[in-house]
Amino acid sequence: MDEDEILLEIIRDLFGKEKHYYASKGQISINCPYCDDGKNKGNLEININEHVYKCWSCSDSNGTHGVLGKLIDIFGTKNQKKTYDIFKPEEHKSKQVELKKLKLPKEFISIKDANPLHIPHREVLKYIKTRGITDEMIEKFNIGFATDGDYGGRIIIPSYGMDNEINYFISRAWFKTKNKYKNPEYPKETIIFNEKLIDWEKPIYIVEGAFDSIFLDNAIPMLGKFMSQHLYKKLYENARKIIIVLDPDAWNDAERLYHKINCGKLMGKVWIIKLEGDQDIADLQGKINEQNIKQLD
Ligand SMILES: [Zn+2]
User: Which of 5, 45, 181, 182 has CA atoms 20 to 30 A from the CA of 58?
Assistant: First the structure.
């Protein structure tokens, strides 16, 4: 097999048969593991000559773009990573390990410190009230916003690591726009959102988004529909009880996740809840029917 065939085989093993393959350009399109959700759109393009990838639909919101090694690090097995390392371009090796320290946007204003007479602040407070976000949540998560810059017009939820330093943040527009979410270019799979707030002794809710996580006590957002290896390892080592609560449109993903993590040391410690209707945890403002929390066969 030549290099292209080996790379193609790894990609097929990970994501199934591609939607298109233009051999002359080394261009492959596959269904994006973050946003396709069974729609079979083939939005994620991989170029195996250039060793890069990008999802045309969710690269801004999910950071789904970069060097191919990143994609294989996230989804690949140990062996696939090893194989890929043989082909990985030299200049990408450094790119992957180089992680600049993330900072909050310089325009970030913490809501608790904001001037209540300032018009944007009043807009933010109005929005936050309609979403059911309380003063207690604002304080606990240091929720803020920006009025200009890259994140202007957006509510920002920072994530703090165990060292109390910023390690990620998510932002969501408070007005109607095409790109509701905008997140920093940083490999989110390397962090656990607001890990310092997690009590591993208590039941841990696993939710999709950061906006869901603020409504439940002791919740970790996966920042998508898939669990990172990093989060899985942390749960495996530390969790006593896990409750999976994904969005109603992601029941299949939730079930898959349940069976994936309900094994070994976690066997019997994993629970799941199916939300009725089409509202997610944030829409429901954290009101879930505890009686619907169950275990699967
Ligand atoms: Zn995508």
Answer: 5
For residue 41, report the distance from its CA to the centre of ligand 1, in Å. Answer: 9
Ligand 1 midpoint to CA 187 (Å): 15
The 10 Å CB-count burial string (b at 16+, else e) for 9-45 is: ebbeebbeebbebeeeebbbbbbbbbbbeeeebbbbb
- Please identify every residue whose CB atom is under 5 Å from ligand 1, which is an ion: 32, 34-35, 55, 57-58, 64
Q: 100-156: per-residue pLDDT in tens?
A: 678 999 999 999 998 888 888 999 999 999 999 999 999 999 999 999 999 999 999
Round to whole Å and give the CA distance between 51 and 72: 11
Burial category of 267 from C-beta neighbours within 10 Å (exposed 0-12, middle 13-18, buried 19 and up):
exposed
